[in-house]
Amino acid sequence: MKPPPQIVAALFGVAALAVFPLLAPTYYAGLMIPFFAYAIALLGFNLLFGYGGLLSFGHAMFIGFGAYGTAVMAGVFGVKSFELALAAVVLGSALAAIPIGLLCVRYTGIFFGMLTLAFGMLFHSFLFKFYYVTGGDSGMRIPRMNILGLEFAQYNKITFLTGPFYYYCLALLVIAAFAMWRIVHSPFGLHLRALRENSRKAEYLGVHVRRFRLAAFVISAAFGAAGGAILGFRIGLADPELVYWTQSGQLVFMTVLGGFHHFLGPVIGALAFTFLQDQLQSLTQYWRFVLGAILALLVIGFPAGIAGWADLANWRLKSRKAAA
Amino acid sequence: MSALLQTRGVGKAYGPFRALTDVSLSIEAGERLAIVGPNGAGKTTLVNLLTGLLAPSEGEVYFKNENIRGHGPVVLAERGLARAFQLVHIFPALTVAETIAAAVITRQKKRWRLFSNLAADRDVAGRVAEVARIFGLERRLDTVSRLLSQGEKKLLDVASAFALDPEVILLDEPTSGISTAEKHGIMKTLIAAAERAGVKALILVEHDMDLVAAYSTRIVAISEGKVLADLPPKLFFENPAVIEIVVGKRRH
Amino acid sequence: MSAFANIVLGGVFHAAVLFLVAAGLQLVFGVQKILNLACGSFYALGAYFGITFVGFAIASGMPAWALLPVLVLAGLIVGLVGLPIERMLRTVYGRDESFQLLLTFALLLMFQDVFRFFWGANPRSIEANYLVYGKLAGGDFTVPVYNLLVILAAILVAAGFGLFLQKTNYGRVLRATAENRAMAEALGVNVSRVYAAVFTAGTMLGTVAGALVVPTAAASLDMAVELVVEAFAVVVIGGLGSMPGALAGAVVVGLIHAYAIYAYPELELLATYLIVIGVLLLRPAGLFGRPAT
Q1: A114 pLDDT band (50/70/90 cuts)?
Q2: Is A31 exposed, middle or buried (0-12, 13-18, 19+ CB in 10 A)?
Q3: What is the pLDDT of residue B250?
Q4: What proportion of chain C, given as a percentage, has pLDDT over 90?
Q5: Where are the domains of chain A?
Q6: By the CB < 8 Å criterion, does B88 face chain A?
C-alpha cells in the first residue's frame, strides 16, 4: 500500500538475508527455512486479511494441502522434482479453494472466521479418518527431493538446508513477494481494498464483491500451499498438527505482529515470530504464555505491529528534520 | 426516442406491508427527474428497485430496454446506471484518487487485471484527474477520504458515480447535510458535470423544494406508495393539494 | 435397546455440559457481541480447579455426598477470574471483531501455560468417586445418578435463565443492552457494569461446566482447545446469541457425539463439522438465531 521506500528496504532485506547464513551460526540459519515457508504463506494470508478485510481461522489448512500434497507427490507418485511437486500443490490448493471459498465468501466477520475454522478442522479430521493414506497421527513422510533437477547428494541435511536450499527458498520468497506486489498494486488490488472499506458502495462502482473475495481466497490458498510444501520438505514430514486451528491462529498472530497494514508486514512478522519463539523457548518453558501476552499487548496497545512502529519512527524522524 | 429507464406496474410488498403499488414511469434522455414525497412514502424503495438492489414484487423494471430482474448493482453499474447515496458512502482508507479510480477501472474494463501496475496506468490517471477537476477535488486527490470535510465527501461520492460514465445517474438527496448557502452551488456543479460527462438522464430524490423547482424538468410525487403526481415544475407548483401532501400533511 | 438408551443418556449428559458452556458463550455474544475463543480455557480452568478444590475439601473432611455442590462451588469461585479478564477486554470494545477474536486467542495461549504451571502437562483426575451417588438401573442399562444430577442441573440453569431473561427487570435490562447499547445507556443503564456482570456470568457457566465434567473425564491441556470447536458447533447450529439455541444446539451436538462414538468413532468430529458447515450454508441464523449479514 505504500510507495518505493519499501522497495529500498526490501532490497536491503534480501541482501541481508543472502549474507545471513555466511555470518550467523548454523543453528540460526537453520531456523530460517520455516521463516521462508511462513513468509510466503502469510503473504497470501494478508491478501485476504489486510487487503480484503477477511479474517480466516483456517489458513493452516492450505499449508496442510501443500505439505500433504508434496508427500503424496513424492510418496505415491514418486515425483522427484520439488518444482513439479510445488507446482502441483499450488494448483491443487487453488482448485480445492474454489468450492470452499464459494461457500465461505458469502459471509464476513465472525461467520467467515467460524466457517474457515470449521473447514480447517474438517480437513484435520479427514487426515485422521483416512489414516491408511495419510498416516493419521504419525503423518506422511516427505523424502529428499531434487532442487532444480539437482540432487545435492554430497550435502548432508544441515549443510543442504543452510546452503543450496536456503538460497532456493530465498529466491522463492522473492518471486512470491514480487507476484503479490503486482497483484496488490493492480486494478484488482484496488477493487479488493474498496470492497473491504465499503462493500455496498463498491458494488455500486462495479466491484464484484463475492467474485473478488473468492479470487483473493484462491490466491491465498495457492501461496499457503507453496509455504506448506517448503515447510513439509524441511521437516521431512507432513504432520496433521500443522492443520489444527490453533496453527491458523498462530498465522494470524504472526501477521498482526509484523503489521497487517503493510505489504511486508507479514514477512517481518514471520521473521520476528520465528526468532521470538526460539529465544523464548530457550529462556522458559512457559514461552506460550509470553507469546500470548505479547499478542494481547499488541492487540490492545499497538495493533499496527512492527511495521507500524517503523512507520511511526520514520514519521517522527521526518517531522524532526522538517522542524530543524 | 425509447425510454432509458422504465418501470411497468411495479410494486413492492414486505409481507402484509405495501411499500409501493403500481408505479409506471418512463424516463427519457434529456430529463432531470425529481422524485419527491413525504418520508416513508416509498421513495427509497422506488430508488432501490430502479437500481436493482431490490426485486419488485410485481411489475418489471427496464434499463435500456432490458429487464433488470436478477441483475444487481454491479451489473447495472457496468451497463451505465449509477447511484450516489443519501448517507455519504466513502472508502475511509482510500484516497480521493483511488476512490475515483475504482469507478474508472470498472468503466475501462480493467477489473480482472491482476498483474498490471495501476499507478503507471495513464488512462486511468488521466480520467481520475479529469473527474476530480469537474468536481473541484483536484487539490485533494491524495487525501485519504476519511479526512475530507462532509461536503467534500458528498462530492466524492457523487464524483465516483460520475466516473462510471453512466447514461443514467440517480442521486439520493445529493444536498442533504450541505449548508443552504452551498446547496445551489452543488446542484449547478452536478448538473454541469452531468452534461460534460455525457449523462443522458438525471434522477434526483430531494426534499428541498427550492432546488426541485429550480433544477428539475419533471417532478414525480410519491405518497403512500403510489404516484401522486407526474408533472413539469410549473404545473406541479400550481397544484396546492399536491404541495400539501408532499411537503407535509396539515395538522388536524 | 440398551445401546440406544446408553447413547441417548451419554448424549444428553454431554449435551448438558455443552449447554452450560454454550450458554456462557451466547450470553456474552448476545450482550457484548464478543465471541470468546478462550471459552474452552474457562472450561479447562473449571476442571483443573475443581480437582484441586475437591482434593482440598476431602482433606478437610468433606462428606462424599457433597461432591456435586462442592464442584459447583469450585466452578463459581474460579469463575470470578472473569472480572479482571473483562476489564482487559474492555480495551477492545467497539473495535473490529478481528481484534476481539485475537485477544481471546491470546488469552487461550496464556491459559495453556497457566495450566501447565499449576497442574503440569499430564492429564489429571479427581480423587473423589462420583459413583458415591449410586447408579440408576432401568431395564438393561444403568446410568450413574451423578450424570442425571448434572443433566438436571443443566435443565434448571436453562429454565432459570429463561425465566430470568424474560421475567425479571435485570433480565430486561440485559436484553435491552443486547439490542441497542446506546439506547440502553441513554436510558440510564450502567452498561460497563452490565458487561462486567454478563462476562463473569458467562465465565462461570464455563468453569462450572468444566468442574462438573471432571468426575467423569480427566482434565487435560487438550480440553481447552478441543472444546472450542464443539462449542462453536453448538452456537452455530442453535443460532448465535440465542439461549434456546444453545439448548437445541447442545442436544444436537451431544447426540451426534454419542451416536458417532458408538457407531463410527472416526466419524465423530467429521459429522459435527459437516453439520456446522451445512447449517452455516443453509440457514446461517441457526435454528433460533436472527439472520446475520
Answers
A1: confident
A2: middle
A3: 44
A4: 27
A5: 5-323
A6: no
